[in-house]
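Same chain as my last thread, 154 residues:
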Amino acid sequence: MEIFVYGTLKRGERNHDRFCRGILRIREAKIRGRLYDLPFGFPALVTPEESILATGTAYYAADAERQRFTVPDADPVRGDVVHGELLTFDDPLARLPALDGLEGFRPGEKSLYRRVLIPAWVDEGRVVAWAYAVEHPSGEYLPGGRWPARDTPS
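reply #2:
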C-alpha cells in the first residue's frame, strides 16, 4: 500500500516517527494539485477532481485492493505540482485506520480531509497512491508546492 504525504508525515516532521514505523520504502514523488499552509501549523492539498480515481472508505482491505488494481492516468504531471514522499507500507488494515484518525477522515461523514486515490509520479514512473486532500482550503497558497515553505529550493 502506498500513501503520498506532503506534510507532517514526511521524514523529519512531527508525525513521521509515530505513524510511519515499519515503513518499507520512501521515495520522492509529485502529484497534480495545489498546496496550502493552513493557520493550524499543517498543510492541505487540493487535487483536481479529474485526478481522483476513488475516495476512501471504511473497508480498508477493499481500499488496499482497489489501489493494486487501479491504473494511473497516462498524462505527465502538468499544471500545479505538489512535492512530497511516497510511503510504502504492508499493513493497510492497521495503517489506514490510524492515518484516517490522524487526518480526521471519517468515511461517509463530514471531515476536513478526505482520503483519495490519485496518480503520483516517482523516478520509476507512475503509480497510484492514497493521499489526504481537502475540498476548500483556507490558508496561504504555496506556489512552490512544498511544505514547510523552508523546503522550497532557492
